[in-house]
């Protein structure tokens, strides 16, 4: 086992490197997000502070998604610094192998990965939804949101000075139909104005066409004239697009939500794939640790190391691209989501470990 002193020394240096690289990447992606929001809202007049806040709301999601890349770059720079100060030479000369050297790195990476998946990702999903709500309100002057639970589909819409809540047992994407739909029409203080119940409702051209048994009641529960058509700002494409963004669902709900989506007539492959992607993210982060160790150099010449870091960064991006493309290829060829996500990681880790073994076989 690696001595405790060395374990804590490497852990401290790696943690510092992760913090510095995270801050640098946070700064870069914050400004990218800021200008992206400016582009989205166009000529709308929005306070500068509000734009900054909307840009900040996307930051946790981007950091969570870029976490393996942050780990990779952080380890590259830490190893480069240790090489320049001849610390690597001293450690290897004292009998510390490369495998022992990366034990503290892997330990910290695993802990951070679990925290990012279980805590940061759920927080990021909430903040992404908040950002979308704010942008939608700025762009269109109205807001809408939706969720799905075991009891069915829920959609909230704010339009024409009133709030509407749509609930449906399930939907049929093939014919744009909501089954067993209930529509609550509320005033701006959320006082009930009207309740509409219908067996079916077809959504086309921003209009709900109700059919089957229709029951319309006022706030006192008294039956009033039937409504066969209801204008709305929703469209079916918007609803399906909402369900194509699993990033906006907390990790803890993704697994059960996928089954609810399937029972509601919506393809849930994206949710299942993203769920396993999050589950295996700690393994991915550890795999890139092995990859970074392939670029260890005991040459302390500055120019040589700079080139090596540059090459390593490019290779890291290429490996990430390989992982995403290969996973998509496996999914397209009917492999299960779990296999499609874990197999590229096994290949990356195995190939990296083999390179490390041949490079440091004398250690």
Provide structural commentary:
The model has no long low-confidence stretch (mean pLDDT 83). The protein folds into 2 domains: 4-139 and 255-359, no CATH class; 143-232, no CATH class. With 363 residues, it is α+β, with helices and mostly antiparallel strands. 61% of the residues lie in helices and 18% in strands. Helix 1 (4-41) runs parallel beside helix 7, helix 7 packs across helix 11 (281-293) and helix 12 runs antiparallel to helix 13 (337-359). The longest helix has 38 residues, at 4-41. The chain has a 7-stranded antiparallel beta sheet with strand order 1-2-3-4-5-6-7. A hairpin with a 2-residue loop joins strand 2 and strand 3.
Low-confidence stretches: none
Q: Which range best describes the helical content: under 10%, 10-25%, 25-40%, 40-55%, 55-70% or over 70%?
A: 55-70%
N/C terminus separation: 15 Å
Radius of gyration (Å): 26 Å
Strand content: 15-25%
Q: Compute the average pLDDT.
A: 83
Q: What structural class do the secondary elements suggest?
A: alpha+beta
Largest sheet, spatial ordering of strands: 1-2-3-4-5-6-7
**How would you describe the shape?**
elongated
**Number of structurally distinct domains:** 2
Counting DSSP E segments of at least 2 residues, the number of strands comes to 7
Tell me about the largest β-sheet.
Answer: 7 strands, antiparallel
Order of helices and strands: HHHHHHHEEEEEEEHHHHHH
How many H/I helices?
Answer: 13
